[in-house]
Amino acid sequence: MEEKEKRYRQILRACGVRPTRRRILILQAITEANRPVSAAELMARHRRMGLTMDRATLYRTLNLFLEKGLVERFSSGDSSFRFGAGTRHEQAEAEKSSAHHLGRDSFRHDHPHFFCTSCGRMSCLAGDAVQVQLTAGNQALPGRALKIEVRIDGICQECCEKMEMDH
Hints:
Order of helices and strands: HHEHHEEHEEEH
CATH class: Mainly Alpha
Distance between the termini: 51 Å
Radius of gyration: 17 Å
CATH architecture: Orthogonal Bundle
Oligomer: single chain
Strand content: 5-15%
Shape: globular
């Protein structure tokens, strides 16, 4: 068994999830993407690998991972969600090594995202790319904030270049 697969197995077990081959592949795809990915992207990746998986299985797995804190769900500008490695995954991995997300420090939870409304790709931005300030003690909010999600919608550089070539 490959070392990477062993680590994913350990992470799943540490979070109370039975490590099946499919679950390992889904978690690996999410954490190694270096950006939040959609369920459709996960399905396409499995097809490219010659594997079959129905949507219900994928969504059950994603919901289980959400429940266990292995992944986080981010809203996108196209009425679907993207999935990225969650805080529990970080904790389980930190117990096994000092690296976040199997060596991917840039994929942290306190960062904004850029969503391309043309191609649907979501990218991670540096944590300091956007500043969000709440007043002292969250007094401006009607309750206590548990999570702040920042998403900038626009057109990515690649799509801009394609649009320029088409004109």
